[in-house]
Amino acid sequence: MSASRLRISRDTRWLLVIVAVSVAALSVLARVRFRDDARLAGPIAPVLSQLGPRSPFEGMTAAVEGVLPRLRAVVTPLALPAIAGASAGETVVPAVTFADGFVAALAPTRTRPSAAAVAAFDRSTRLAVARLPDARVSATLQTWAPIAAPQPRFFVAVETPSGEVVARPVFVAAMTSTASPGWPSPSWLLPGAPPMAPGTMLFTLEGALAGVIVRHDSQQALVPWPVVASEAQRLLTTGDAAAGYLDIDVQVLTEPLRAATRSQQGVLVSWVAPSGAAAGLVKVGDVIAGVDGQAVASVADWEPHVDRLSAGQSVTLDVWRGDAAVAVPVVARGEPAPAALLGLRLRTVAGAGARIERVADGSAGQRAGLRAGDLLTRVGDVDVPTEAEARRAFDTATADRPLLVAVTRGDVHFVLAMDRDW
Fold first, then answer.
1. Which residues have CB under 8 Å from 37's CB, separation 6+?
2. What is the pLDDT of residues 30-72, one digit of tens each?
3. How far, rounded to the nearest angstrom, does the alpha carbon of residue 323 sit from its chain's CA centroid?
4. Backbone phi, then psi, for 379, in 5-degree steps?
5. What is the C-alpha to C-alpha distance for residues 395 and 413, in angstroms, rounded to an integer?
6. Residue where a domain terminates, one of 300, 331, 362
7. How far apart are the C-alpha atoms of 193 and 207, rounded to whole Å?
8. In a domain, 1, yes or no
């Protein structure tokens, strides 16, 4: 019996020819459309995948890489000591030129940077103006301002963590206008946006400068660049006068504290320096509801008032004490009280010592390495000190003899020798 030969119908042959021609045509189109793309080593290229659109991630990465040279021409890494006199080195922050020879940036703390290039500084906003003789305003720099109801969009966040300008895409789903303490114009809250360090410069994908990231209470906010540049120009023109200090610590007025103080708004005084400007005038437990007739509703409202005081300036504090409202005039000191320079907010822990609740930026306590949560079990010659005993020991320390401070941090116990540099 002869072997039967496989027969393919005419219609099937035509279908195979059409498929072969189609694949060849798609391959030619792909090579024309994506002539710069790398060729695959395999014999069969994924033609349909080449003709499809790029993924959003690939497109975003390409957009950031494409605009990065423009951003590097605009942003200058600026080295600022995080703490004056500290040995921990410098923090490099992104700065942008707002006037020929001068750049603006956000300092890492509310303490004036000790860098010689800093020409002016605002403690309230942490805005620093630095003198860079070669800095020139970019003729190609454009700014971006949100419309009344900004739509979700991608931005480019620019930072300088190691002295080099780096950029990454960030998605901002919503922007809400809000009054921002310390700044003259509203800022934009960025709820749900990826975490960004204060001072980060935010650009559009087209390279337009949107503004600077700041902290607003516990949220992130964007201060528009025209507002930042205007404030920098004001600082450059007026300069920063010698800072004034009231030597008062305040805290949030919670609902239980409202009930206890019978106050509806303000901040609660938690500490008054014994030798400070407000000693004998303001008391712990007072509620400060206003400064010079301007309402104070939160700690964020309070800080701009005190941060912008100059030495010798007189202010009137609207104080609620007991069941009465009292107007208290206070004259700001040119130097903080010794305990204020120490920068520690303490609380007595019965039978244990004095717990550190807060360490002020740039303070002697921070330079010594003390942290919030540390327990001071001995200060000088006093074992298990109360808050008052710890402060008295710090106040009476002498410059010729370091003060021994025993600290408990979690399960670790150690002793510090603190020089009298506060």
1. 50
2. 666 655 554 444 444 454 555 555 555 567 888 899 999 999 9
3. 39
4. -130, 115
5. 24
6. 331
7. 19
8. no
Determine the 3-state secondary structure of 194 from DSSP: coil
CATH of the domain at 386: 2.30.42.10
Q: CB-side exposure of 177: number of CA atoms within 13 Å?
A: 8
Let me know whether 290 and 279 are in one domain.
yes
User: Which pair of structure tokens corresponds to residue 284?
Assistant: 């712990």
The first and second tokens of residue 298, run together, are 């939160």
pLDDT digits (tens, 9 = 90+) for 311-353: 899 999 999 998 899 999 999 988 766 555 677 878 888 889 9
One-letter amino acid at 418 equals M
Distance (Å, whole) CA 389 – CA 401: 18
Among the candidates 266, 300, 331, a domain finishes at 331
The secondary element (H helix, E strand) that includes residue 347 is: strand 344-349
Does residue 268 share a domain with residue 162?
no
Q: Which domain holds residue 234?
A: 54-240
What is the Cα 41 distance to its own chain's centre? 49
C-beta of residue 410 within 8 angstroms of C-beta of residue 399: no
Both 406 and 361 in one domain: the answer is: yes
